[in-house]
UniProtKB/TrEMBL annotation:
InterPro entries: Asn/Gln_tRNA_amidoTrase-B-like (IPR003789), GatB_Yqey_C_2 (IPR023168), YqeY/Aim41 (IPR019004), YqeY/Aim41_N (IPR042184). Gene3D superfamilies: 1.10.10.410, Uncharacterised protein YqeY/AIM41 PF09424, N-terminal domain. This is GatB/YqeY domain-containing protein. SUPFAM superfamilies: GatB/YqeY motif (SSF89095). PANTHER family: ALTERED INHERITANCE OF MITOCHONDRIA PROTEIN 41, MITOCHONDRIAL.
Length: 149
């Protein structure tokens, strides 16, 4: 079952169960997917849908931290609840050891020799890590590895 089919089934289940928060979040995700499809004038595959899910989660995390800083815990809680719902559509996260192994492989495969090669390494890692690791953390690890030689 593709991710889009799963979203459709989950939306129907949320309607039947009258889970309004879940339904609103799924509809928001579907709207973001549809908007991207209209912009690109083509149907998205699961990898591209995963990138949209990651983007929405990142937006929710940023909003939640802003709401907490602005003393609005009610709005922050709502954003965090949406993060939980959206996270269910991401694949199982990788362990730190697995990420380190993939970074080591990518560095050797791309023949990266220093910080100037960071983009090459990250581009080779992105398809493998999409939805399974925080790319900001991966970028820090790659940078540290390339700086240390």
């Amino acid at each position: 079952m593709s991710l889009r089919e799963r979203l459709q089934e989950d939306m129907k289940a949320a309607m039947r169960a009258r889970e309004s928060d879940r339904l609103i979040t799924i509809r928001m995700l579907q709207a973001a997917i549809k908007q991207r499809e209209v912009d690109d004038r083509r149907e998205l595959d699961d990898t591209e849908v995963l990138s949209i899910v990651e983007k929405l989660i990142k937006q929710r995390k940023d909003s939640a931290s802003q709401f907490r800083a602005g003393n609005r815990p009610d709005l922050a809680d709502k954003e965090e609840a949406e993060i939980v719902i959206l996270s269910a559509y991401l694949p199982e996260p990788l362990s730190m050891e697995a990420i380190d192994t993939l970074i080591a492989e990518a560095v050797s495969n791309t023949a990266a020799s220093g910080p100037k090669d960071m983009g090459k390494v990250l581009n080779s890692l992105k398809p493998q890590l999409l939805g399974r690791a925080d790319m900001a953390l991966v970028a820090e690890k790659v940078k540290a590895r390339l700086n240390n030689g």
